Amino acid sequence: MRNEIDIKYTWRLEDIYPTINEWNVDFNKVKLLENNIIKYKNMLSNSSKTLAECLNAYSYLLALTDQIYMYAKMKKDEDNNNTFYRSLTDKAIRLYTEVASKVSFVASEILNIPKELLSTYISTNKELYKYKQFILEIIRCKNYSLSTEEEKLLSLLIDFSNTPKDIFSTFNNTGIKFDTIECENGDQIEISSGRYIKLLKSSNRKIREKVFHLFYKPYSIQKNTFATILISSIKKDNFFSNARKFNSSLEASLYRDNININVYNNLIETVNNNLHIFHRYVNLRKNLLAVDKLHMYDLYLPLVKYSHENIHYENAISLIKKALTPLGTEYISTINECFKSRWIDVLENQYKTSGAYSWCSYNTHPYILLNYQGTLNDVFTLAHEIGHSLHSLYTNKEQPYVNSKYKVFIGEIASTVNELLLINYMINSSTNKEEKKYILYFYLEKFRGLVFRQVMFSEFEKIIHTRIENNNTLTSETLCNIYHELNEKYFGKDIEIDNDIDLEWSMVPHFYNSFYVYKYATSFFAAISISEQILNNRDNSILKKYLEFLSSGNSINPTELLKHIGIDILSTDYIKDGLNLFNKILNDFENMVK
Predict the structure, then answer these.
(1) How many CB atoms lie within 10 A of CB 355?
(2) d(CA 70, CA 92)
């Protein structure tokens, strides 16, 4: 139970609101402010003073709304069975929707201000100058912006647009019933999403095979339902991209992040051109397992028996701080504050939200939710979330609210740099051959999960969205066929692509946040470049640039921001460099297991 957990392992949300009374005060304040901001409607072109006042009010209102929602949701995440905080979260979501609707006029009116007049406003009003990038971003989107009334209508569809995602989540979590399986010790265990990968790590191949087939059995039964939900989500994306006159859902998604569509296409093409390296890894697995034919249910069996388990939380903290020392004393000092001041909710408890995340509103310090079990994965998750948290902290310190919400494309880089510094530290500091072998294998699996798997997902998304956009039929059967062919291409000829894997598309939640997963791969490649530069640079010039990167938020577009730190995402060099590193690690691992 949560009340039995030592308080030092729980986060201190009282830093946001000491009691619910203060939350209610801010809630009522937002209700007042959202009505007051309407007074600026149809007035933004009157003067630079009026525009600056409106944007100040806009920023304050949205920052406070973020904070209200953040607190309610994190309290619910402590115990999802708590009806009071579930209700409070729903209340905060409704408020967020109201506020979004009330402020939707701002962007439309800025677009109606003559360009020359707007430029004069920005150059002559110091208070307005801090909003320059925000205004330029609105202007960038002018060709895809609608009238004030049309924008208001679309803002009212925010809740509705999440319906396919919500239906999928509910049905996947409550509508899927798994069979039980008898384990080697005779125990009957019910298969579940949470237990699936653990069961696939069984040394008993017959158990792995049975688990694999039983896991996909209910998805096979419900494949038409899942297909209908996913197709509805794709059609939703198509509706919004058409409404804003984009050529495709992919273009619309990348345009939001100010990413050239070639970045997406180059990623898929470059990885496809280098799949032979991944095929070599698959072949090595087949040889090490000494099987005539490798199957999909053999992919999670550890190739190295050495195991990092039961890592005490305090030991994980010590390890992470040593690994992140190259990021400088200020960075480490902030990490110390993070642990000392209870920014992290560490342990699992009944009804707590699963997984992990970092969350930071503009006027609060960041918080991290974990479900720490002492595995090596948990240690890397902690390092990852610290990366997100300090990125937010550095950004909020240097940027106005409107520039504080950095693009996800950029955000995943900061978190992954921490993971890569941790991997490098563990490889280089290990004196145990088996441990080093295990870390190299762990690194290879990172590549498999974050590069090859996510790029395959990205290619799948592109194919199925294009089919809908071209008015071609999409059914559960065509989804399965497309997915099967992609698995054949990505995994190569040394593995049997079991038909059950064709259904994997039906259980991937990321497909309801379309064209998101490619960022895992691009961020991984960019983080490799940054971490290698930091580790190999002796005069700290790269570190200075990296800390500036962390402080930039959304003040510079991602392409230019990454150029500042030596990465050209419009080229394929950073991808090729990352794949060359995968090849090197594979060679090192291969030499150690011979």
Answers:
(1) 10
(2) 9
Whether 360 contacts 392, CB under 8 Å:
yes
> Are residues 20 and 134 located together in one domain of the fold?
yes
* AA identity, residue 213: H
Beta-carbon neighbour count of residue 474 at 10 Å? 18
What is the chain's Cα-based Rg? 25
Is residue 196 exposed (0-12), middle (13-18) or buried (19+ Cβ within 10 Å)? Answer: middle
The residue ranking higher by pLDDT, 546 or 186, is 546
Confidence of residue 145 (pLDDT cuts 50, 70, 90): confident
- Report which residue type is found at 511: F
CATH number assigned to the domain comprising residue 396: 1.10.1370.40
How many angstroms separate the CA atoms of 143 and 243, rounded? 12
Which of 284-302 are b and which e, b meaning 16 or more Cβ less than 10 Å from the residue's Cβ? bbbeeeeeeebbbbbbbbe
- Establish if 561 belongs to a structural domain: yes
Q: How many Å apart are CA 509 and CA 318, to the nearest integer?
A: 34
> Within this chain, do residues 89 and 44 fall inside the same structural domain, yes or no?
yes
Residues 454-486 have pLDDT tens digits of 999 999 999 999 999 999 999 999 999 999 999
Looking at residue 307, its pLDDT comes to: 75
Q: In this structure, are 95 and 192 located in the same domain?
A: no
Q: Is residue 69 part of a domain?
A: yes
Nearest Cα residue to 176 out of 160, 161, 190: 190
Residues 191 and 67 in one domain: no
Decide which of 221, 241, 256 is a domain's last residue: 221
Average pLDDT along the chain: 95
pLDDT-based confidence at 49, cuts 50/70/90?
Answer: very high
d(CA 395, CA 3): 34
Per-residue pLDDT tens digits for 407-432: 989 999 999 999 999 999 999 999 99
**Mean pLDDT, rounded, for 554-576:** 97
pLDDT digits (tens, 9 = 90+) for 506-535: 999 999 999 999 999 999 999 999 999 999
Q: Which domain holds residue 204?
A: 176-221
Query: 525: which 2 tokens?
Result: 């490649």
Q: What's the pLDDT at 255? A: 94
C-alpha distances in angstroms, 50 versus 44, 57, 463? 6, 11, 47
Contact 345, 370 (CB under 8 A): yes
Q: What is the predicted pLDDT for the residue at 319?
A: 98
Total number of domains in the chain:
3
Burial of 66 by CB count in 10 Å (0-12 exposed, 13-18 middle, 19+ buried)? buried
- What percentage of the chain has pLDDT greater than the value 70? 100
Residues 64 and 143 in one domain: yes
Residue 546, in any domain of the structure: yes
Res 205 pLDDT > 90: yes
Q: Are 146 and 183 part of one and the same domain?
A: no
Q: Could you tell me the CATH number of the domain that includes residue 62? A: 1.20.140.70
Task: Just list the catalytic residues.
Answer: 385
542 plus 410 within the same structural domain:
yes
- What separation in angstroms does the CA of 568 have from each of 110, 196, 526, 559? 32, 39, 9, 7
Residue corresponding to tokens 């902690």: 382
What does the alpha-carbon distance between residue 446 and residue 440 come to, in Å, rounded to a whole number?
10
What per-residue confidence (pLDDT) applies to 539?
75
Residue 52 shares a structural domain with residue 182: no
Q: Two tokens at 365?
A: 């310090």
Any domain includes 471: no
